[in-house]
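Weekend entry, working from home. Most of the wet-lab plans are on hold until the incubator is repaired, so I used the time to fold the two sequences that have been sitting in the queue since the last round of cloning. Logging both here for the record. First:
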Amino acid sequence: MQNQIHPNKIRQVLFLAFILILGYVILKETKVFLSAFLGAITLYVVSRSFMMKLLINYKWKKWASSLTIVACCMIGILIPFSWMSTVIVTKLAPFLEDTSKVQVYFVQINNYINQYVNLDLQSMDFMSKIGTMGAGMVKNLLESSVSTVSTFFFMFIILYFLLYDCFKVEHWFKQVLPFTSKNSNAVVHELRNMIFSNAIGIPFVAMVQGVVAMIGYWIFGVEEFLLMGILTGIASVVPLVGTMIIFVPLMIFMMATGHLYQGIGVGLWGFIVIGSVDNIVRLLLQKKLADVPPMITLFGAIMGLNIFGFFGIIFGPLLLSIFLLLVKIYVDEFGTADAKNVHVSE
């Protein structure tokens, strides 16, 4: 009789299974809004302190405070995003329509490399694969950004209601966490740091490197310095190689087309200035932002691009960081207790 499962346990398992099934159905049918939901949560965490000041210090109404923050977020996000999207789409559209143009540039780079180094990348079908893969990735990225209009729309609506009911939302969130009070506070603290690191750290470093790259490309006569600067900023999220994905081929291409000194200048600017800016900015931010390991940023960005499109650069590393955090909390919450029980029973 002692081995029988208590009826309460059975009801608990059945009820939990029902919740999981219902949650899966809801998530499956609303996955199109997942990017908007994550974006709203990210903006909520970033703007929360400002919301508290408006409500507590300045005694603003909740609706006025929420609308003000949403309007500021719209201005701060939509204007630069629209400009970047316009530049990228306008400049890359001809190459997406005819990918052979991309391969022409790679062939020129290959011929120049083969002239000085006994390495023929084209003979290994390297150029064709890289050109096709690169054009395909950019095309998928741009196609996914078509849905960003609806994503932004629902993101700002969700953000408004999160801000308006901020006290209820935070109280509910702490209640539903199945952890001790200590670990619940640790989860909230770590989530806040991770969101700040991904939502502020990654875009800020990318923006600074992109602007610095634009200046250098303009100085050394790069024709499409705006586009190259934007792409350099986007590439900065990739650990280790990062911005080199853009400025190294650009350097070789300029040298291959007869602009030797300009190409050398682009290379020096990339390795010395752009690389130094990355280290300096991260050094200045590391005291206020969580230290996200490079591998999490790399694999998170790759995973995020496949799931969320353009927004995956931010949300991918964030989701991966949250997953690892939950594993850590689970081990601390349940694994330690299980180990103690085994030790006591022995």
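Second, folded right after the first finished:
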Amino acid sequence: MNKPGLYVGIDIASKTFTAAIGKFEEETGWGIVAKPTNFENKYDSFSKFLHWLKTHNVQAEECIVCMESTGVYGEALAYFMVSNNYKTVIEAPLKVKRAFDPEGHKSDPVDSCQIAEYAYRFFDQLRYWKPKDVVIEQLKTLLTVREQLVEQRTAHKNANRAIVRKVVRTPLAETIHEKAVQELTKHIEAVEKESKRLINDDPSSRELQKLFESVPGIGSILATFLVVTMYSAPEPYNPKALAAYIGICPYENSSGTSRHKKATSRHYGTSPMRRLIYLASMSVRQHCPVFKRYFLRKLAEGKQKQLILNNIANKLLKIVCAIARTRTPYIPGYRSIHPQLLTIKQPLTVS
């Protein structure tokens, strides 16, 4: 893949965004060929930004548009640029920040120039952004709403439990919490019903959902999370990459002789997903004979319970990746065989 000639850096804010165009030339090196310009961050202004690019001879096939990840603030612009065939990259702000010395001014024009330079310097590491499927986006939003509702319901339950134990009772406060719990429960059920409808209406998602539910310990909610994750993760069929994406992959944390900590995950993924996969590992530890024997064996070896459960969670992800890759349901007691053993025609004998 050849390097493009121009790089557009965009610094996103809630109401505006700033764009700058950079270029590398053999004689002068890296430089900004179009000074940072501000635009309104709304759909009506995107056409003006497109016209600005064309006035500077920026063609879609000859440039890369790079912006920082700012959630919903930059989403509309990203969709617009991809729909106009511009190669668009969305990078984490921390990655861009660490690429430059923490000196000098900090402003939107400076940031846009640095983002453009970052795209040029790290071109070989960039991944082009692609819009997710509409069903996956809707499921992702519904899962987020469900987690918020569950947290609110739990807070009301805990508060009401404390109020009920008081010597001086307050009926109005108890009634308010009870009604809030009932309303939140209705909303949660409505969200789950809509999630099921979306999955059932989409053949690919419905197939993955049923395959994931065939794995021990994986219920409907975790299966839905896994369906969304499979469409969102950079390497969905790689169990190690998927574990790192979710945030349950332990990393070594040591340096020289003065620093040595236990390996731990970075917790970059979504916390609901980590919690659900942890609960799944707890379930199979109790009810699945294979994982139960594994847990007791590792416990006898002196391993910590939390470490063993994390290993079980990674094993579940390995099964999930294999199922998603082969599109076959879970087979209890399945054991993989090395391909070389299948070529042996005569049985091995021990002298």
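Plan for Monday: verify the second prediction. The two ends are 57 Å apart (CA to CA).
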